[in-house]
Amino acid sequence: MKQTIRQLKRELEQTDAILIGAGAGLSTSAGFTYKGKHFEENFADFEKKYGFHDMYSPGFFHFATPEEKWAFWSHHIYINRYQDPPEPVYQNLLKNEK
User: Fold this and answer.
1) How far apart are CA 38 and CA 52, in angstroms?
2) Is-contact 71 38, C-beta < 8 A?
3) Rounded distance, CA 37 to CA 54, Å?
4) Which residues pair with 35 in a beta bridge?
5) Helix, strand, or coil (residue 66)
6) Which residues contact 8 (CB under 8 A, 6 or more apart)?
7) Could you report how far apart the first and last alpha carbons of the chain are, in Å?
8) What confidence tens digit (pLDDT) does each residue in 54-92 have?
9) Alpha-carbon distance 37 to 31, whole Å?
10) Nearest 10 degrees: CA dihedral of 84, 85, 91, 92?
């Protein structure tokens, strides 16, 4: 095991780049969760009006008007794309780039 770790360390030190493939788990580790505190703090008005308890369910909901639909989706995009995540996972990855 120690030999494998040493070999991996050498390979990482000699490489020009590392490509990280990650799915929802990376976002979750950064604190982006689709329910609970993050949802309640950012989507209380939608929860009150529509009874949503997470950010996933509205993807299947038939809003009465396009304006209501895009009110939700524009807020969803703003919260989950343009605001900093609760944990610095992405910043730590960028900080460690060569």
Assistant:
1) 13
2) no
3) 10
4) 54
5) helix
6) none
7) 26
8) 988 999 999 999 999 999 999 999 988 898 888 888 888
9) 10
10) 160
